[in-house]
Every structure is written in C-alpha cells, then in structure tokens.
Design a protein that fits this description.
- The complex is a heterodimer of chains A (111) and B (115).
- Chain A is built from no helices and eleven strands.
- Chain A is mostly beta strands.
- In chain A, the strands form two sheets. In chain A, strands 2, 4, 5, 9, 10 and 11 form a six-stranded mixed beta sheet that branches. A five-stranded antiparallel beta sheet of chain A has the order 1-3-8-7-6, with no helix packed on it.
- Chain B has 115 residues and is mainly β.
- In chain B, the strands form two sheets. In chain B, strands 2, 4, 5, 6, 9, 10 and 11 form a seven-stranded mixed beta sheet that branches. In chain B, strands 1-3-8-7 form a four-stranded antiparallel beta sheet, with no helix packed on it.
- Chain B is globular.
- The chains are: A mainly beta (111), B mainly beta (115).
C-alpha cells in the first residue's frame, strides 16, 4: 500500500526567510497530494493541493511542486511570517480514495 | 468547502465510561471519516462512516469499541466505548464533498482526556 514520508520533523527559520518541507510517496497510482496546516487546538486546514497532471501550483506565498518520476512533492513558503508557525502535514490519496498521511513537520518562525 | 461542527470540543471522562462525539456539516456530503490523532502524532483513520449502513473500519479499530452512526448526509457520531487512558487523543471528523472532488475538510476536533 501507499507510504508517505515527510521531512524534516522540525524546521526553524528566521522570519522573512523561506521554508521547504518535503514528502515522498511509494504508490505511483496516487494522483492527489494535499498539504494541511494544523494550529494548536484546531483541526487540519487544507492550504494547497496538487493533482498528478500538474507540476507546480502557487497561491500567494505558498507553492507546491510535484515530481511524479521521483515520487516526491514539496511545500514552499516564502517570506515567512509568525502566523506561519504550525504543524504541516502532507498526504497522498491512494487508489482506494484514502488519504495516507505524512508524520508532520513543526514549523517554527523565529522573530 | 464545507463548514464542519464537532461537539464537544473537549471533555475529561472517567475510565470505563463512553463518550459520543457529534459531527454536523452545513451541506450534504458524500463521504465522512473519523480520525484519531494522538498527542504530537499524525492522523490515523478509524473508519469511514457510511450513510444507512455499517461503517467501514480500518485495521486495529472495531465496531464494539468505536460504534459509528450516520443517519443522513450531514450528520455522524462516533462513540468511544469503555474508555481507558490510552484513548486520550484528539478525534477528528472529516468530510469529502463528492467522490469527484478530492479535497477533504476537517472539523476542529474533540480533545478527549480519560482519567
């Protein structure tokens, strides 16, 4: 079945710098890759997603890239701000329509 | 998107008791799911709530421990039965609007502490 690995587990960046979180997946049939942000005491919030027929997608300061050949996808956050501090999860939707989750990355924005 | 309301938002329960968590969606949705998230961990799917039929449980989760109801397309409940401290977790309701739309949305979660 599908397996998703996420790195790093913790990422600390200076405010204003960029942050990159990477995920790899194992099932070449997976075709949908969302990213979620989870703030303390809240449920995960979908922030951006990408489908397998697209290589890159941007939404203001957030972008996601997908390399189907290498089976990895990444979240890029530019000009980081204090409110970007949270736990970020990647996921892949497998052939059974299930979301398989990464372990999460705690992003810390240093002032 | 969909607006998902979960109740209660948190609770502290005695071991051996049961708690029922409610999930209400502001629109009809095709798919509803229940997840568990242990402290500092990722999400683990408990089951898919099926409207009008028994839920589909993932490996390691059983109906006697986590009975689920879904009487219509906007509402579901998860019961955590005969609780022990190991059941202390965040329980999350998630919905998929239609099978053709892959996005999944989450409620704010129920933080359960069993003492």
């Amino acid at each position: 079945g599908e397996n998703v690995e996420q790195h790093p587990s913790t990422l600390s960046v200076q405010e204003g710098d960029s942050a990159v979180i990477k995920c790899t997946y194992s099932d070449s049939a997976s075709n949908y890759f969302p990213w979620y942000k989870q703030e303390l005491g809240k449920g995960p919030q979908l922030i951006i997603d990408i489908r397998s027929n697209v290589g890159e997608k941007k939404d203001q300061r957030i972008a996601v890239t997908l390399n189907k050949t290498a089976k990895h996808f990444s979240l890029h956050i530019t000009e980081t701000q204090p409110e970007d501090s949270a736990v970020y999860f990647c996921a892949a939707r497998d052939s059974n329509y299930q979301l398989i989750w990464g372990a999460g990355t705690k992003l810390i924005i240093k002032p | 998107s969909a607006v998902i309301s979960q109740k209660p938002s948190r609770d502290i329960c005695q071991r051996g008791t049961s708690l029922t968590i409610q999930c209400q969606v502001d629109s009809q949705v095709t798919m509803m799911f229940w997840y568990r998230q242990q402290p500092g961990q990722s999400l683990t799917l408990i089951a898919t709530a099926n409207q009008g039929s028994e839920a589909t449980y993932e490996s390691g989760f059983v109906i006697d421990k986590f009975p689920i109801s879904r009487p219509n397309l906007t509402f579901s409940t998860l019961t955590v039965s005969n609780m022990s401290p190991e059941d202390s977790s965040i329980y999350l309701c998630s919905v998929g609007i239609t099978t053709g739309v892959p996005e999944a949305f989450f409620g704010q979660g129920t933080r359960l502490t069993v003492v």
